[in-house]
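Limitations
The C-alpha cells in this dataset are predictions for the assembled complex, not deposited experimental models. Users should treat interface geometry with appropriate caution, especially where small molecules or nucleic acid strands are included. An illustrative entry is reproduced here so readers can see what is and is not provided.
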Amino acid sequence: MVLNFNERSPFTYLMCVICIASLGYGANVMAFEPTSTSPSKLPPWSQVEDTDPDPDPGETTQAVFTLNYPRIQIPFEITLWVLLASFAKIGFHVYHKITVWVPESCLLISIGLIVGGIMHSLHEKPPAVLTSNAFFLYMLPPIVLDSGYFMPTRPFFENFGTVLWFAVVGTLWNSIGIGISLFAICQIEVFGVQDITLQENFLFASIISAVEPVAVLTVFEDISVHEQLYIVVFGECLFNDAVTVVLYNLFNHVAALEVVEAGDVFLDIGHFFVVGLGGTIFGALFGFVTAFTTRFTGKVREIEPLIIFLYSYLAYLIAELLAISSIMAIVICALTMKYYVEENVSQRSCTTIRHVIKMVGSVSETLIFFFLGVVTITTEHEWNWGYILFALLFALLWRGLGILVLTQIINPFRTIPFNFKDQFGLAYGGLRGAVSFALAFTLPDSIGRKDLFITGTIVVIIFTVFIQGITIRPLLKLMNVRKTNRNQETINDEIHKRLMEHTVAGIEDLCGQWSHYYWKDKFMKFNNRILRKILIRDNHPESSIVALYKKLELQNAMEVLDQMSGDISAAPSLISLQYVSSISRPVLLFSEVFETTVSYTNKHTLPDDITAREILMRRHTSLRRSLRAGSFHGTVCNTIYMRALIYTGYRKTKKNAKSYIIIYIIYTLLNMEMRVFDPFLALFLPECCKNVAEVFLSAHGPKFEL
Amino acid sequence: MGSRASSLLREEDIEEIKKETGFSHSQITRLYSRFHSLDKGENGALSREDFQRIPELAINPLGDRIINAFFPEGEDQVNFRGFMRTLAHFRPVEDNEKNKDLTSGEPLNSRTNKLHFAFQLYDLDRDDKISRDELLQVLRMMVGVNISDEQLGSIADRTIQEADTNGDMCISFSEFTKVLEKVDVEQKMSIRFLH
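Predicted assembly:
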C-alpha cells in the first residue's frame, strides 16, 4: 500500500503532536511568579519544587504575568490524557484499512506502549488512574452502562438461558480449571513458584477468565454473524464481568484466610447467589423507579438525561454499598428502564441519552486500553517464564474446552443448536481486556506475587487482543460462519414476523409445551395491563407494526425531500411547459402571469391536510416506479408531482409563491388531458393543488380564475 | 378397552409417521398422548371444537386460522396422521438435513413448506394470493382495536406495494417468499419438541 505524501502528512503531524504532548503530561510543571516583568519560560520536563505561590509579605511588585499550575493540575492532566486518547482514536480512522484489519483495542494499546516508552525513558510515573477506587467507581460504570443500555432486548431474552449458562458456569469452569492446573504447575519445583497458594491461584485464574466483547463484537457486526452467536457473546461478556468481580472478591477474601473449611466454601457459594440475584432485583427496582420518575418530567425536558444517568449511577453505588453485584444492578437497571424511558422522554432527550452513554463508555474504554499500554512499560515486572506461559496456555485451553463441553450440554435445550463453527467463534472470540487488567491492578499488596500476576495478566491480554483480535476476522470469514442478513426494515418483515410468532406460540400451546413465547406473552399482558399504566405518561399502547409503519413513512418523506433539494427552482423547466402548450389549449405566457402576480402576504399557511400528505407520500414510490423517464407523460407528471409534493407539504416560504400559481395553472390545463391518461394522478393532484389554489384565491380573490 | 383399541398407536404407524415427518419415537409417543388428551370424543380424530377448548389457543389472535390449518380442504376431522403432518412443519431444520439428498421429496419442515404454512394463514380462500382484504383481516386481528380502519388500510396498502412485483395488487406465494428471503424463517417457524 503506497501512501502518497498528502495522506501521510496529517498523520505524521498528528503523531508528532501526540508525542510532544505526551512529554508534557507525565511531568510536573513548576509554577512560579516572576519578579520581573519579562515572561518566564517553563521547561516542560523540569522537576517540581514547591514554591510558595503567595508573594512574600514584603514583596510589593505587581506580577504582570503569573502561572498557577498546581491549582488546575488535576483536572488539567485528566483533560489532557483524555484528549490524547481521543486524538489517538481520531488518528486511527484516518486510514480506513487499519481499523478493518486491526481492532481498535490493539491500536490503543500500541499507542499506550509508545507513550509509556517515552515516559519511561524520561523516568516519569504515569498518573495514578488505576487505583481501585478510580477504576471501580469512575471508569467501569460507563462501560457497563453502555453495554447494558444497547443490549438488544428481544434476542437477549430469547437466549437468556444460554447466556446465563455460558456466563456463570463458563466462568466458573474457566476459573476453577485454570486455577487447579496452575496450582499443579506450581508444585513443579523447576518454575520456582511454589509459594503461590491454591487460593491465590484461583484468584489469578478468575482475573484472566473475564472476557471482553468490544473488539469481537465489532468484527461480528462487520461480517454479520447470525444473531444467536452475537447475542451470546455479548451477553456472556456482560454477565461474566459480574461473575468475575464476584469471584474475585470471593477469592480475595478466601486468600486472606489461613485455612479454608468446607463450611466457608458453602457460605461463599450461597453468598455468590445472593450477590447475583440481589444485584438483579436491585437493578430492576431502580429501573422501575427511573421509569416512574420520567413520567413526571414532561415540563422539565432538559434534565431528563441527567435523571437517567443519576439513577443508573446511584444503582451502581448503592449496590457497591450493600456489597451485591453492582454490575448486574446497573445492567438490569438499564435494561428495564430503557423501554419505558424511551416512551416518556422527548426525542431530543432520547438522542442525548444514547449519545452521552456511548460517548462516556467509549472514553472509558479507550482510556483503559491506553493505560494498559502505558503501564506495561512503566511498571516493575516480575517475569517467570514457566508460570506465565502456562497461564496463557491454560487460559486458551480451558476456554476452548469449556465452550465445547458447555455447548454439548446446552444444545439439546436450544431451538437452533450451535454447530462447530459457532463454537469456534465463541471460543476464539474470548478476548481478555479492560476488566482483567483493572482487577489485576487492584490486587491487594498482601498477595506476595502481585507483580507476577500483573505481568501474567498483561501478557494474556496482549496476546489475546493482538493475536486473536487480528486473526479472528479472516478466520471467521474463511470458515463461513452462519450469517444473518442485515435487512432493511420493511413493514412486510414486521408483519410476517409477528404472524410467525403468534403461530408458533399457538402451536406450542397446542402441543402442551411451555416455552419462552409463553412467558413473553404473559409478561406482555402484565406489562400492558399494569406496568404501562403506572410508568408511562401518555399511555397509548401502539402496536409495533403501526409504529414501524409511521417510521417508514417518515423516512420516505425525508428521502423525497433530500432528493428534491437540489432541484428546487422558482419556475419549472420551460421545456415541460412547452410540451404542455403544444398539446393543450393556448396558455397564458408565464411572463404575463408573473407580471400580474401580486405579492403575497406572508401568512399563506397551507391547510394542514394530513390525509392528502399521507396519500402523496404513499403514492410517491409507486408513482416513481410506474412512470418511465423520457416519456412526456412521465416528465411532466413527475415534475408536477414533485413540485406539488414539496410545495404543498413542506415549503412554506414566500419565494415559491409564483410556483403555486404556476402549479394551479398547470393543474387546470392538465386536468383535462391528465384525466384521460392517468386517473391516479388526477385523483390526488387536484387535492393538493386545490389546497394551494384555495389559499391563494382566498388571499387575492378570483383574479386568476381561468 | 374395546372401542379404544382402534385408537391406540401401533408400531407400524409410528414407523410410518417417523419416516414421513422426521420426528423421533419418543416425540411421536408424547404427541400421541397429547392428541389423545385433546380427543374428548375418543373417536380417534379431533374436531374444531376440540381445538377450541385449549384456552391459550382461544385467545391467540390467530387461533382460528391456526386451527383451520390442521383441517384439509372441506374436512371436519383430523386424525393423528394429519395432526403430525401439520406439526411436522415446525420441526427445526437440522444442519445435516440441509445437505441430504431429497430422495423422498422435500421434507415437511423445509423452508418453502414453512413459508407455505404461513402463507396459508393469510390466504383463507386458497386462491394462492393474499388479497388486500385478507391482509386487512389478519392485520386487524394482530394489531388490535386502537387503530382506525383508514390507517390499517394504509398499512395494508404499503405492505402490498412493498411486496408486489407484478402489479396485481395481491401478494402471490413467490412474492411472499421473495420478500421474506432475508428473514431467518427456519428459526422463527420452529419449535423444540420435547421428548
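Some entries come with short summary sentences. For this one: Chain B has 13 helices and four strands.
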